[in-house]
Amino acid sequence: MSFKLAAAACGAAMGIALGLNPALAADPSASPTQVAPPVQASVPSIDPHADELLSKTCAALGAADALSFHAEILFDKVLPHAVKVQYAAEMNFALQRPDELAVDYHSDLGGKQLWYQNDTLTIFDEPHEMYASMKVPSSIDTMLDQVEQKQHLTLPLSNLAYSDPCLRIRKQIIFGSYIGVNDVNGVECDHLAFSSRNIDLQLWLDRSGKPVPRKIVINYRTEPGSPEYIAVLSDWKFPKEISDSHFSPQLPKDAKRIEFLKVKESQP
Predict the structure, then answer these.
(1) How confident is the model at residue 262 (pLDDT cuts 50, 70, 90)?
(2) pLDDT digits (tens, 9 = 90+) for 138-194
(3) How far is residue 262 CA from its own chain's centroid?
(4) Looking at domain 8-32+44-248, what is its CATH homologous superfamily?
(5) What is the distance of C-alpha 233 from the center of its chain?
(6) How far is the C-alpha of 86 from the C-alpha of 103, rounded, in Å?
(7) What pLDDT, on the 0 to 100 scale, is given for residue 10?
(8) pLDDT by residue (tens digit) across 34-81?
(9) Domain limits of the chain?
(10) pTM of the model
């Protein structure tokens, strides 16, 4: 998947930040390259305790009218000759249901900001001072689905924004286990491990309050070099309301507007 814009220089940079490996790694149902050939379906083997904890986390996130968190991210990129390098990123993420989302993402490969409010999605490429806006559905779930399908845009950690964060994960996992109680930056967490045909997913869920994810590790084991995505989440907040101004685009005066390019539908 890639995020394509009319301006080539900006398009490449935005693809790195919001539509390439780090973004896709946040979505266990996605793969950085092509999906492996279909295999015979098997009945998932998921530990009941792991399944229960996952359900509680998804229920807590899906029931929130508003939430925000900070993420420190590490992600791999596999270069020619199987050389694997690691990059870092940080992100501030906020949403307010049914139709507001804000992402401030900065990595070693560039910085992007995203605002979604009502029926408009705006993405700003900070290094190039370019932005693109488009009309989208007026609900977070349908907006995320549409931009993934039509623009091939997958937002970092977007699964956490859905009204049912478990839905897409459960369609993929074939194995799940409860590992035990482990620490994430001084917070005791329930450590879970899941796998699908293409990826291994680990979650560390807070035991002390709301069962929010404190750490996420995804390994693309079928990809060359088995790249990993690691996100440590902190500063979780669940306010009754977030000011609408937080979700309104804050663009510099000299920012240049460009257009989203439509991605052609694949032919059957």
Answers:
(1) low
(2) 999 999 999 999 888 888 899 999 999 999 889 999 999 999 999 999 999 999 999
(3) 22
(4) Lipoprotein localisation LolA/LolB/LppX (2.50.20.10)
(5) 12
(6) 22
(7) 35
(8) 444 554 555 679 999 999 999 999 999 999 999 999 999 999 999 999
(9) 8-32+44-248
(10) 0.83
DSSP string, the chain: ----BSSHHHHHHHHHHHTSHHHHHT-TT--SSPPPPP------EE-HHHHHHHHHHHHHHHH-SEEEEEEEEEEEEEEGGGEEEEEEEEEEEEEETTTEEEEEEEETTEEEEEEEETTEEEEEETTTTEEEEEE--SSHHHHHHHHHHHS----TTGGGGSSSTHHHHHTT-SEEEEEEEEEETTEEEEEEEEE-SS-EEEEEEESSSS--EEEEEEE-TTSTT--EEEEEEEEEE--S---GGGGS----TTPEEE-BPPPPPPP-
Length of the chain: 268
